[in-house]
Amino acid sequence: MATLLRKTRRTKPMYGLRVSQRRANIMDSLVCTRELGDGEKTVLLIDDIITTGCTAAECARLLRKSGAERVYALTAAGVK
Q: What is the pTM of this model?
């Protein structure tokens, strides 16, 4: 397992934030640690919970920008 994403700043807790606030909160708070090589074109993100998907979407955006062709997300729980 490789650590491909690193947090660059603290964010507010997502609990209680509206979707637009969540997007703004997570934006520019992560970076990819490196470009992906030829054998790393598919990435699996693992998180404990997904609510609006803002964090997963931002992670996927950064990974695709760094060379991923496919990004999948696996979560243990979701919220309706």
A: 0.87
Reading the block at residue 80, the tokens are 């309706």
Task: Provide the terminal-to-terminal Cα distance of the chain, rounded to the nearest Å.
Answer: 30
64 C-beta neighbours (distance < 10 Å), count: 15
Q: Which residue carries 């970076």 as its tokens?
A: 31
How would you class 20 by CB atoms within 10 Å of its CB: exposed for 0-12, middle for 13-18, buried for 19 or more? exposed
Per-residue tokens: 15: 């609990």
Site of tokens 């997502």: 14
Divide the 80 residues of the chain into consecutive groups of 10 and give the mean pLDDT of each group. Answer: 87 93 96 90 91 93 95 85
- In one-letter notation, the amino acid at residue 52 is T
Contacts of 48 (CB under 8 A, 6+ apart): 75, 76, 77
